[in-house]
Amino acid sequence: MLLISNFVFGQNAELTGKVTDAISNEPLIGVSVYVDSLVKANTNVNGEFSVSMTPGTHQISFRLLSYELSKQTILLTDGEKKSLNIKLKGTSTDLNTVVISAGKFEQRLEDVTVSMEVLKPKLIESRNVTNMEEAMEFIPGLTVIDGQANIRGGSGWSYGAGSRVQILVDDLPQLTADANDAKWNFLPVENLEQVEVIKGASSVLFGSSALNGVINIRTAYPTLKPITKFSLFTGIYDRPVFKIDGKEYDLKWWGDNMLRTTGFSFFHSQQLGNLDLVVGENVFDDQGYRDGESERRGRFNFNTRYRFKKIEGLSAGVNFNTMVTNSTIFFLFQNDTTGGYTPATNTLSDSRAYRTNIDPFVTYSNKKLGTFRFRNRWFNTTNENNTNQNSTAILFYSELQYQKSLTEKINLIAGIVRTHSKVESELYGNHTGLQQAAYVQGDFKYKKFSISAGARAERNNVDSLSEKWTPVFRTGVNYNAFKGTYFRASVGQGYRFPSIAEMFIKTNVGSLVIYPNPDLQSETGVCYEIGVKQLFNVKKWSGYVDVAIFRNEYKDMMEFAFAQWGAFTEPLIGNGFKSLNIGDTRIDGLEASLFLSGQLGKDWKVNFMASYTFLDPRQLTYDSAYVLKVGGMSTAMGSDSTDFLKYRSEHMLKGDLAIEWKKFELGMSLRYASRMENIDKIFVSGLLDLAFPPGLGIDHYRKYHRHGDAVYDLRSSWTISEHVKLSFIVKNLTNYVYMQRPADMQPPRQFVGQVNFTF
Question: Quick one: pLDDT at residue 460?
């Protein structure tokens, strides 16, 4: 009877404690507390935890990415309350970088099974980056042409219609409902935790537009200490000079005036009890370096999250971002010398744009049940202009996601997605779209292996056009062969449904006419990659070397093609651009990158990065309307070269060196791209009458720029105190005159002064 009584009335024991950093003594948030290999708790914002368990002997583990695993064996008696204070040490062989995008859960960068890059906010702030498009130029293997992101040659140039790279803010899609393009100046650079870039097909987790990769902008939530930041800057454009044929052409069109850019940004984050609050604001005014072009914008955003006291693990909030922009958009120049920064006739357009997204969300996390997330986005894009191209596009996005860590080494995630689009436009007409999808992915760790596998089924509709459900799959493995050595291999399928703009657009820019193609079919792809990342830590120096070999294959690739699509009575006798399924393509390549960080003596710190990307993008099949070949040569109706895919460079090189001495920093960056091997024949054939003087058009420019373009930026800063920092930046240090795509000269040298306040 006594034994039975003790069994009936026995009480569970309780383990409490606090986890801190071994060096700084700061509390560590989100440390997973395992009891006998099962997750039982996570530390709160104060680093504290509490676990109820049965009496007896238990194995307790404390795990946090970029920290060494801590294990303890404890004995608890009936009803005992025990307290532990744990100090975790950082791992010297880690990159100390935690990412989410690869699997939608936190993992170390070196454990990821695909190529992935991370851009930190310090790099963006030090360069006075005014929109996220400019920031992307520092990512190895990534370029942005006219707003279209291109990862490892996956895209060429199609002027704001369709994207093979999914752009996200906090895992939610940021591409517009009509053109399926990114509005880079809308993305909140003032509120940034880090930017994560996945290279290769990522449609399993992120859907249609992730055929070529993903750019995920992660915003920051408050820490224990409130933070307030102000940033002010002003800059001027230098006189552009073009030297060619032994002559010097002055491209400065603004006379004795001084063209300025000015801007202001504000950021504040704070915890107010159980409420997390982040507020940001950005104002920008650019008088423009091209005649008639300008931009003025104002952006305001906030993030909120409330953590409920009475229901442990439940939180909810709303994120908000809105912007108004007035701009004049430049499309084509007059010529490559005296008119390089002057628009061709009838190619400027005045525009007023409104962008707003509202993102309500609910998250519930339970140590037994797992984590449930219900996230939503309402994204409105409204464009008003003077060229009868007004449009309003609204996107409604909803995702229900479930995540469960089955053990310390097994993570499962699944979700369902529904996206509804509504477009009212003079440019495209009125249309509705619907996307439905379901996905699942599992990530497993077995000894030195990290294995990832996932699948997705997706269906897209536009108006009455409905596609069948499309399945895509991916798998990858990462093997930690030696200390700091990680081999990886992956295969991923991709899928992209055409945008409303690509299917229904009908417009013209000057003499250029763009025609609709409602018969466009979806494109699919497969990305293969093998790579190795070697981490090193020698005395005061650390870093890594990463090398990857990849092959991307695409079926029914969509690109804008030039041919006679219209009637003989139309401009250019009916010749123009139309989005077309050009056939099958293949892109082979190699990418290598190096990062090095360390100290020289007592006061000198050095950070260095460099990357090289080689591309061999080829068209495997031909559509006769896209390119006609006569005697092995392309006709004027198609491209101006061979089967090398249009608007791609074979070689890309990027580098950055930063040296810190006490309170001073000096840095320099380099971006090089070899000449585009192939562009549309119209730009060099003389068919297009854009007032180019004979011999002074794009063909003339390409003749004297055979070796590509190298652009250098210089930056310096002085940290006056812990609250004030002064910076001076020179963009395009050598005042190099160059095009990014045909007839689009890039900014001349620019001098920028910046002051940052942090409290």
Answer: 93
Compute the Cα dihedral for 305, 307, 311, 313 and give only its sign.
positive
Query: Strand pairing of 314-329 and 294-307?
Result: antiparallel
| pLDDT for the residue numbered 622 | 60
> Which CATH number does the domain housing residue 25 bear?
2.60.40.1120
| 552 neighbors 587 (Cβ within 8 angstroms) | yes
Tell me which of 88, 107, 141 is where a domain ends: 88
- What are the distances in angstroms from CA 617 to CA 142, 156, 194, 645? 15, 10, 30, 6
Neighbours of 599 (CB within 10 A): 13
The pTM (predicted TM-score) of the whole model is 0.85
Q: Is the pLDDT of residue 5 over 60?
A: no
Nearest to 176, CA basis, from 430, 354, 394, 424: 394
Measured in Å, how far apart are the chain's first and last C-alpha atoms? Answer: 67
User: Same structural domain for residues 79 and 136?
Assistant: no
CB 498 within 8 A of CB 163: no
CA distances for 707 relative to 128, 525, 744, angstroms: 29, 31, 18
- pLDDT tier for residue 64 given thresholds of 50, 70 and 90: confident
5 within a domain of the structure (yes/no)? no
Given 88, 119, 150, the domain boundary residue is 88
> For residue 1, is it within any domain?
no
* 177 and 44 within one domain: no
Q: Give the pLDDT confidence of 293-342 residue by residue, as tens digits.
A: 999 999 999 999 999 988 888 999 999 999 999 999 888 888 877 788 98
Cα 29 from Cα 79, distance rounded (Å): 28
- The type of residue at 695 is G
pLDDT over 90 for what percent of the chain?
47
Domain of 77 in residue numbering reads as: 11-88
Q: Which helix (H) or strand (E) holds 745?
A: strand 744-745
**How far apart, in whole angstroms, are the C-alpha atoms of residue 610 and residue 50?**
46
Q: Assess contact for 756 and 230: CB atoms under 8 A.
A: yes
Query: Pick from 167, 219, 511, 553: which is nearest to 343 by CA?
Result: 511
In a domain, 2, yes or no: no
Is residue 512 located within the same domain as residue 653? yes
Identify the three-state secondary structure at position 111: helix
Q: Which residue has the higher pLDDT, 191 or 586?
A: 586
Return the residue matching tokens 């006379």: 255
Instruction: Order the strands of the 38-42 sheet from edge to edge.
Output: 38-42, 32-35, 56-63, 70-76
Element holding 204 (H helix, E strand): helix 203-206
Q: Which candidate, 523, 520, 522, 451, places its Cα nearest to that of 490?
A: 451
E strands, 635-738, are 651-661, 664-673, 709-719, 724-731
Can you list the alpha helix ranges (DSSP code H) found in 173-301?
Answer: 203-206
Name the domain count of the chain: 2
